[in-house]
Amino acid sequence: MIVKQNKMDKRVNYTTNLETIFASASSMGISAIKTIRISGKESGKILKLLTKKHLPKPRYHSLKKIYDIKNLSLIDKAVIVWLPGPKTYTGEDMVEFHIHGGNAVLEHLIKNLSFMKNVRLAKPGEFTKRAFINNKMDLLKAEAVMDLINAETETQKKIAMQQIEGKLSEIFNNWNNRLTKMLAHYEAQIDFPEDGIPKKVENKVIKEINTLRNELKVFLSDNRDGEIIRNGIEIVIIGAPNVGKSTLINQLARRDVALTSHVPGTTRDIIDIKLNISNIPVIFFDTAGIKKRTQNLIEKKGILKAREKMKKSDLKLLLIDATKKINSSSLELIDNKTIIVINKIDKVNEKKLFSKINELNKLSVKKKITISVSALKGFGINKLLKKIENFIKKKYSNFLSGEPVIIKSRHRSAIKECMGYMNNINNKKNPELNAEELRLAVQSIGEITGKFDFEQLLDIVFKDFCIGK
User: Which residues pair with 234 in a beta bridge?
Assistant: First the structure.
C-alpha cells in the first residue's frame, strides 16, 4: 500500500528549534500587576540570568528580585512561576513574571529580554499556535481561545467554552474516524484484489457513507445560526428620511452616536452600536432614509448602502412616522424579518395613534409585529427591546438550546467540501476512485481540527484485515 504523507501531519518536535518568545499577558496601561509570559527552550536560562539564582521549585509562586543583565540594577521584586514542559500551556518550558504594573518596570524587563540571543517578542496568537503545534489542543480549541478573549456576552462565552471543552471536536473526530474506517476497506480491496471485499461488506460501507452524508447535511441546515450569534445579530433601522432613525439609535445607545436634525437626509453613512440583549450580542445599524428619488449623489450612495445592509441583516426595524401618512416606499421594505415601529407617539393623541395602527392593518401588514415608541422621549423602548429579544429567542431557539453547531465559515466550507467528495462515491466505481474521494473527504474534515494522520489508517487496516498474515 502506498501511504501519502499529509501536509498537516508535521507537528511533532516542530518547536524544539524555534526561538524563545515573550509577551505581556496583561492589557496596556497602568495596573497593580502585569504578567509577562515566556515560552521556549531558553526559558529556564532566562530565569536564572534575571534572578541570579537557581531555578525555583516548579509550579510554585516564588518572590524573587529580578536584575538588569548588564548593570545588575534592580528591575523589580516580582512573583515568579517556573513551569517546565511539557505540562504547560504551550507544551514548552515556560516562565511567568508577575511584576508591578507600572510602564517603567514593564519596559525595563522587556528591554532586558530583547537583549538576549534567540529570544524575541511573540507574534499575535503565537503562544496558542505553539500549543497547537505541540498537540496541546486542536485547531477548534485554539480558535476558541481567541473567541473566549473577545466574548462580550454570556452566550458568546458559552460558545467558546463549549468549543474549548471539545464538544465540537468530538463530532468532527467521530466523522473522521468513520471516514477513515471506510477508506480502510477500499485500501484493502486495492492491495488485495484477489481476496476482494464481500458484497455484503461493500454494501455496508456504502450504507455508512449515506448515513454520514445525511448527518453532515443536517449539520449544515442550521441557517448559519452559530455564526450569526458568534459575530452578533445584525439589526438594521430603516425608514423614510427624518422618521427618527438616528434618534432611536441614540436612545438605544444612551448617548449621541448619530447626528440628528429636523432637516431630512442628515444620515448619509451607516452608524452602528453594540448591545447585549439577554446575553446575546446585537449590532444595531442606523441608515440613510429611503426614498425613491434624490438628486444628491452622496444621498444616493447612502440609500444604496442602506439597501445593501438590509439584504445582509438578520432583522429590520421599519420606522413609521405617527404624524405623517404612510408612503409606499416604506411598505415595500416589509418582509418576514421586519418589526414595524410607529415612532413619534409623543406628538399624537391616542385617537390618531389607533388610526395609524388601523391604517397599517388595512395595508395587509397586521400579521407583522408592530410596536409604538417615542425615540425622543424614550417611551416604549423597553417594550421594543423585549419584542426584539422574543424574536431572537424564537428564531434561534435551536442554537440557544445548547447543541453544538457550526460557528465559523471555515468549518462550514470544509464540511461542504467533504460532502462533495462523498457524493462522488458509489459501488459502481472502481475501488481506487472511491478510495481517493474518501481520502479527500478525510482531509477536509481533518482541516477543521488540524488532525489528519495516515498512520491511523494503517492501524485500522492491520487490525481489520490482518495484513501480513
Answer: 283
